[in-house]
Amino acid sequence: MNILAIGDVVGSVGCRFLRAHLPALKKLKSVDLVICNGENSADGNGITPASAEFLFHSGVDVITTGNHAFRRREMYDYFDSCETVLRPANFPHGAPGRGVLVYDMGRVQVGVVNLMGVVYMEPLDNPFDAADAILAQGLPKITLVDFHAEATGEKKSLAYSLDGRVSAVFGTHTHVQTADEQLLENGTAYISDLGMTGPIRSVLGVKPELTIEKMRRHLPVRFDLASDPCQMDCALFGVDDKTGHSLFVERIQIK
After folding, report:
1. Distance (Å, rounded) from C-alpha 186 to C-alpha 164?
2. How many domains does the chain have?
3. Does residue 45 carry a pLDDT above 90?
4. Is a pLDDT exceeding 90 seen at residue 222?
5. Count of other CB atoms within 10 angstroms of residue 137
6. CA dist 96 to 76, 114, 172, Å?
7. Is 68 noted as a catalytic residue in this protein?
8. Per annotation, catalytic residue among 21, 68, 175, 245
9. CA–CA distance, 110 with 50 (Å, rounded to integer)
């Protein structure tokens, strides 16, 4: 089966670009399942029920998140009620929502795990221990991991740790697509970062002049999102239904 993973969607401009291009891409690549990181899909940062619903109605099947998952309090109940929106599984016990999903497609089930890194990030539970504990509980042969992390070394280390135990590990968070897609020796596909779905002339989706001002002056700056034109960064994973091993990984960028 073919599973498409889409990089961090930024604001309403990124949501609209995804809606405009995802249907054709799904048809072109015979996509069976779409996973999308939506933690920045709301204007002004974070994710809201409205932005999540927009992504679902645009053809996304599962939404993952990261360090901005709980930026908007209106999402707390939505995380609890909607099984197909995940937050990192290594958040402390009692956090709203869940970090693991078994998506039933009828002929096959697909596991999706959302984890967050701790290098240069928040001090959450160790993602390596969390991954081991999750897999010990039993997941489908086809399982993919969104590892929302800053450091490529942490991302790749987790991928090697999970090689042969999951179908794919893909990184999110940096908003910059990496050119290191590969199949690891035991059948797990990997890419350090999917990239971003949002404005091309931007810094992580924000107007460059604002990030320049922040870094030059070190004074508070209100970050506004840049506008069109946009791009959609993603990766396509071809997975063997019987073994759960990846057969290929294709990096995709649409402008």
Report:
1. 5
2. 1
3. no
4. no
5. 7
6. 6, 14, 21
7. yes
8. 68
9. 25
